[in-house]
Design a protein that fits this description.
The protein is α/β, with parallel strands linked by helices. The chain is built from twelve helices and nine strands. A five-stranded mixed beta sheet has the order 1-5-4-2-3, sandwiched between helices. Helix 7 links the parallel strand 6 and strand 7. Helix 5 runs antiparallel to helix 6, helix 6 packs parallel to helix 11 and helix 7 packs across helix 11. It is globular.
Length: 287
C-alpha cells in the first residue's frame, strides 16, 4: 500500500525512525478526512501541516492550512508546506505526479472495509511514530464494535437500504455493496444490507430494484448538516410516491446528517451505535 519514493526523510528513513521511537514524518499532508482524523486520534495532530478542505473534525484542524479537495488540490500550496509525507486517496493524478517528481513520499489510503481501516491505522501509526497508539486504537474499535454486536445478538435482522443521493429527487440513488465498511457496520448493528450481494462497492440502485427488494428500514446519508421539518417532509413524499415499500409504510425511513457517517476512521464506532439505534431501537434503549 505504500508508494514511497524515499523515506519520510533522507536523514531518517521511515522504518528506522519509527523503531527509534521518534516521528518518522514531521510534516504530513492528508488529502482525505479519514486519514486526518486517524492521525489526530493517534495524538499526532501537530504533525499535520495541510489537510483537505473537507476536513471538519477534530476541532484542532481548524487552524491547519486547507489545500482543496481530492480532485482540486492547490499544488503550489502543497509545495509551500514542504511535506515529508502526502496521504492520497482515490484518483489524485496531478498530486501524485507532483510528489513523484519532487521526491515527496506518498501513502495511498485505500480504506473500504474494516480490515482496510485497521491496516491503514497500523501503517499511519508506523509512519508518524505512534505505533503503540495505533494498536490501542484498533483494539478499542474492535472492542466497541463487539459490544454493539452483543447487544443485537439474537434479535431479528431487518432488511436495510442505505442510500447516498441528491435530496432534490429520488433518482441516481447509490447504495453500499458487499465489501464496504458501511455494509459491515449494518450487519454488526443487527441489520441485513439488501445490496450485500453486489460486488460493486457503491452500486447504483434502480427504483425497481428497491421496490423488489422491499427494505424494512431505509437510512439516507445526507450531506447537509441539518434538515428542517419541511425538507424531511419533502424527502418522505418522494419515497411515498415510489410504491409499496415496507420501510415507507411503517414509518422507518431515517435521515442521518452526522458528518462522520461515511468517513472510515475510528469514528466507525459512532456510526455502528447510530445504526443500532435505528435498526434496533430496543437494543439501544438507555444510551
Amino acid at each position: 500500500m505504500f508508494v514511497l519514493s524515499a523515506g519520510c526523510s533522507e536523514r531518517a528513513p521511515a522504518k528506522s525512525a519509527a523503531a527509534a521511537g521518534t516521528p518518522s514524518c514531521s510534516r504530513v499532508i492528508a488529502l482525505a478526512p479519514n486519514a486526518a482524523e486517524i492521525i489526530c486520534g493517534l495524538e499526532a495532530c501537530d504533525l499535520l501541516v495541510g489537510v483537505s478542505s473537507f476536513c471538519k473534525f477534530p476541532p484542532q484542524l481548524d487552524g491547519v492550512p486547507k489545500i482543496g479537495g481530492l480532485r482540486d488540490p492547490d499544488l503550489e500550496v502543497i509545495l509551500t508546506l514542504k511535506p515529508d509525507l502526502v496521504i492520497l486517496r482515490g484518483q489524485t493524478g496531478p498530486t501524485r505526479r507532483l510528489c513523484l517528481d519532487r521526491g515527496i513520499p506518498v501513502y495511498d489510503d485505500k480504506v473500504e472495509s474494516l480490515h482496510d481501516l485497521y491496516t491503514t491505522i497500523t501503517d499511519l501509526g508506523r509512519l508518524v511514530g505512534r505505533q503503540t497508539e495505533a494498536v490501542a486504537m484498533i483494539d478499542l474499535i474492535k472492542s466497541e464494535l463487539q459490544a454493539v454486536a452483543r447487544r443485537v445478538a439474537g434479535l431479528g435482522r431487518p432488511k436495510v437500504l442505505f442510500t447516498l443521493r441528491s435530496p432534490q429527487t429520488l433518482s441516481n440513488v447509490f447504495t453500499t455493496g458487499n465489501r464496504t465498511f458501511i455494509s459491515e457496520l449494518i450487519e454488526i448493528a443487527g441489520g441485513r444490507n439488501i445490496f450485500a450481494d453486489s460486488e460493486v462497492l457503491y452500486p447504483a440502485a434502480s427504483l425497481e430494484e428497491i421496490v423488489a427488494r422491499n427494505p424494512d428500514v431505509i437510512i439516507e446519508a445526507m450531506t447537509s448538516d441539518q434538515l428542517g421539518d419541511q425538507q424531511r417532509r419533502q424527502l418522505l413524499d418522494q419515497w411515498r410516491k415510489l410504491g409499496p415499500v415496507t420501510a415507507v409504510r411503517t414509518g422507518r425511513v431515517h435521515f442521518v446528517t452526522d458528518g462522520h457517517f461515511t468517513i472510515p476512521s475510528q469514528r466507525v464506532t459512532l456510526t455502528a451505535r447510530t445504526l443500532m439505534s435505528i435498526i434496533h431501537p430496543e437494543a439501544a434503549a438507555g444510551d
